[in-house]
Amino acid sequence: MKIALLGYGKMGKAIEKIAIAKGHEIVYKVNLENAYDFMSVSLHNVDVAIDFSMPSAAVENILKCFEAKVPIIVGTTGWYDQFDLIQEKCLKEGQSMVYSSNFSIGVNIFYKLNKILAKMMSNQEDYDVKIEEVHHTEKKDFPSGTAITLAKQIISEVNQKTEYKGRLIFNENLPAQSVKDHEILIESIRVGDVTGDHKVIYESIIDEIQITHKAKSRYGFAKGAILAAEWIQDKKGLYTMEDILNL
Ligand SMILES: NC(=O)c1ccc[n+]([C@@H]2O[C@H](COP(=O)([O-])OP(=O)(O)OC[C@H]3O[C@@H](n4cnc5c(N)ncnc54)[C@H](O)[C@@H]3O)[C@@H](O)[C@H]2O)c1
């Protein structure tokens, strides 16, 4: 495949390594510096674009690929307030797109576990639930896209919860924060160079139940993004990693 990498930062570079090892070719590497010029190139020589850029850039990049009828894999998070617009355009125009708040196979298994656990906890009124996520200090958005997906999954199963509330923490020693009964607290801790840890915690006065996912490196996200790029080649429509992994 001939790949355009939209965003050549930590993730773009991790994807490049795997793509080349699998015999694919990188035809564009786009960063903040050449993003403006990229908007005027034709994408006739591109089989798939992979976007791991910035929340503020993702939508423009998606629209550019739609215009050129190039399938796009979107790993960037923090742009989902415009999701409805992109979904409608993608389906109406017969475009090809895979998006996921997390491309790693492990996190997609974790999502499935989260749904099952939320269903089991939906009538357990003695427990309250919160989410903790830890990432490196360069991360631009909070809560992480993965934490938001986890919260939405819980909201769809647990009647009492209808909203999530994010709290950004650069100092882990801050006092605990309480939220309203209908809210799920998401604590976003930014420290060191942590790739991405997520924890869902159900707590009662008697005990605590936790499920945790820890990414050891960016390799898992990058491998999943390449898998998605290979998978979308002969398809039209809007997909997530769940469709690809068939979990
Ligand atoms: N879905 C997942 O599995 C997953 C995993 C890891 C990270 N992410 C997300 O991917 C995004 C990138 O993560 P990262 O760690 O590589 O960040 P990064 O800061 O290392 O890299 C982002 C790159 O995007 C470039 N950029 C800025 N504007 C651009 C534009 N208009 N067009 C193209 N590129 C542009 C920047 O120059 C930078 O090099 C973030 O939103 C992050 O949350 C998603």
Task: Give the structure's gist in a few sentences.
By secondary structure, the chain is of the alpha/beta class.
Describe what you observe in this structure:
- The chain is an alpha/beta fold and 247 residues long.
- It has 2 domains: 2-103 and 219-245, 3-Layer(aba) Sandwich (Rossmann fold), CATH 3.40.50; 105-214, 2-Layer Sandwich (Dihydrodipicolinate Reductase, domain 2), CATH 3.30.360.
- 36% of the residues lie in helices and 25% in strands.
- It contains 8 helices and 11 strands.
- A 6-stranded parallel beta sheet has the order 2-1-3-4-5-11, with helices on both faces. A 5-stranded mixed beta sheet has the order 7-8-6-9-10, covered by helices on one side.
- A hairpin with a 4-residue loop joins strand 9 (197-203) and strand 10.
- It is elongated, with a radius of gyration of 19 Å.
- The mean pLDDT is 95.
- The structure holds nicotinamide-adenine-dinucleotide.
- Nicotinamide-adenine-dinucleotide (NAD) is lined by residues 6-12, 30-32, 35, 52-55, 57, 61, 75-78, 100-103, 141, 221.
